[in-house]
Each structure stands twice: as structure tokens, then as C-alpha cells.
Design goal:
The protein is mainly alpha-helical. The chain has 5 helices and no strands. It has 2 domains: 45 residues, no CATH class; 94 residues. It starts with 6 loop residues before the first helix and ends with a helix. 60% of the residues lie in helices and 0% in strands. It is elongated, with a radius of gyration of 24 Å.
Length: 148
Amino acid sequence: MDVLPNLLPTFLAGRDCACPGCGYNLRDLRGTRCPECGDELVLQVGLMEPRQAGVIAGLIGLAAGAGMSGLLLGFLVILLVTRQAGGPDAGFVVVNLGGLVVEGTAIVIWLRNWRAIRRLKAGMTWVLVAACWGLTLTNLIVFSIFVR
């Protein structure tokens, strides 16, 4: 697969560069494997500043909703442990647990598709970001309606 196998050793000749796997200094490497960890190394071109604003904004939106639900459930646990509440309100638990599960699942899906989302056209990425924040807003509205 490697058409020009001598480019990596040429690049590393006289240059300090850490192995991305173990941190070993690859200066003057003669092959394509790290002598410390044995991982195969490749020389590749990457974006200096990859487009990550959208994917980060979406993740923040989802994390805000999951964090809200998680903190409220944590607050309920504290009240129960300190015996400042008679018992958990079923609506409170269901709404917050549901919000946490839905937003947590969305976070996992978002993280698994990070690169694919980053490669989308900017307009589509921002539509997905709006959907993430919309999900969090929906979580907040459902909480406001059903928990009193």
C-alpha cells in the first residue's frame, strides 16, 4: 500500500517527533514501525485546523441536556440520602431519567460519527447542531411541563 516507503525515514532524519502511540522519540527512524511499541507509522497530510466548530457545538448542546438531567437526578439522590424528601416523585424520575438516556444515547451516536459529521457541508452540519440544541430545549420543555 505504501508507494514511497522511504518518505517517513526521510522526514524523521534529524527531526525529533514523538510516536503518537507511546511518545517514543522517532528521530532518525529507519523503518516504518516504532521501535518502542511496534506500531506501524505513516506519514500523512492533515488539515492544519480541521473544521470542528460545528461538531463541538453539537456536542455541547447534547451535553447540556444530559448534564441537566443528570444533575437533577443527582440532586434527588442527595435529598433522599439526607432524608430531606419523602420519596421520589415518579414524574421527576421518569422525565429526568428519560432525558438522560435520550441525550446520552445521542452523545454516543454523535461521538461515533464525529468524522463523518465534520466532513459534511457546513450547512448540513449546522442543521444537525440545531437539532442537538433542539433536543436539549425539548428536554427542558418536557421537564417544565411534567415536573411541578
